[in-house]
Prior knowledge:
The protein is built from two helices and 22 strands. The chain is mostly beta strands.
Amino acid sequence: MMNIEKGYYTQQELKSFNFNYLGEDVLVSRNSTIIGTEYISINSNSRIDDYCTLVASEEGEIIIGKHVHIAGYSLLSAGSGIELHDFSGISHGVKIYGKTDDYSGKHLTNPTVSSEFTGAVSGKVTLGRHTIIGSGSVILPRVNIGDGVAVGANSLVTKSLDEWCIYFGSPVKKIKKRSQELLKLEKKFLKTKA
């Protein structure tokens, strides 16, 4: 049986990267790319898996709550900021953008053009507590995803989503309400950690 710690940086190594904040028992894959560590906060018991890319800067911080999981091949491009609240998770290959080009044809696009000509759209992205984002989904800027939201795989999120609902599609549409039973399990889980 493989020791999970072997593929992840040690706590001592992570502390040397000068994160803005680093909690206890954080796992970050050695095969991930992290840019702008001084603008990234990772709270306790969170995990970032293989081949993830996190990009933060002075214009946009990344804040990761407690017990957050970021699955492999995911991208967090902060732009104007990304915040993942406690117990949220993003599945394999999810892309979150805090800034994106204007695709209307009214502006030039790509980072080789100065910002005065691009008309880029930017805004903070927030994922509430117990939010889960399905594999391959894309979240665009200026989106607030409420507590307890579940977004199905391969969905496109272009607007804020109401809490405790299940969404799916491109663009996403509300499918139905989501159970809040997991809140009872959270209380039991936290008691076992105390």
